[in-house]
């Protein structure tokens, strides 16, 4: 699963299939429901105009590590929380 800085979804692997192709991201997005993508290392809020804001970070992960593994720019919440 890939999420853009503005919350756009993309996935290109169907779990359990040998052939890569469209997965279920388009169906999820078309439903109009709130979608939550979970990660172990951090939490981002997504604003469709302002982009990503880092709001929570795992204790063992640094902001620099998140920057290195995130291709798009993002903001850091002034009240960044740790879990």
From TrEMBL:
GO molecular function list: succinyl-CoA:3-oxo-acid CoA-transferase activity
Protein name per its UniProtKB record: Putative succinyl-CoA:3-ketoacid-coenzyme A transferase
One of the Pfam families matching this protein, by short name: CoA_trans
Organism name: Paramicrosporidium saccamoebae
Keywords, sorted A to Z: Transferase
Record GO cellular component, one term: mitochondrion
The keyword Membrane is assigned to this record: no
Keyword Transferase annotated: yes
SUPFAM superfamilies, per database record: NagB/RpiA/CoA transferase-like
């Amino acid at each position: 699963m890939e999420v853009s800085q503005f919350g756009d979804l993309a996935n290109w692997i169907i779990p359990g299939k040998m052939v890569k192709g469209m997965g279920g991201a388009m169906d999820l997005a078309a439903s109009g429901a709130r979608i939550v993508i979970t990660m172990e290392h951090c939490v981002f809020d997504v604003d469709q105009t302002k982009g990503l804001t880092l709001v929570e970070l795992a204790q063992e992960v640094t902001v620099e590590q998140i920057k290195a593994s995130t291709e798009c720019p993002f903001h850091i919440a002034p009240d960044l929380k740790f879990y």
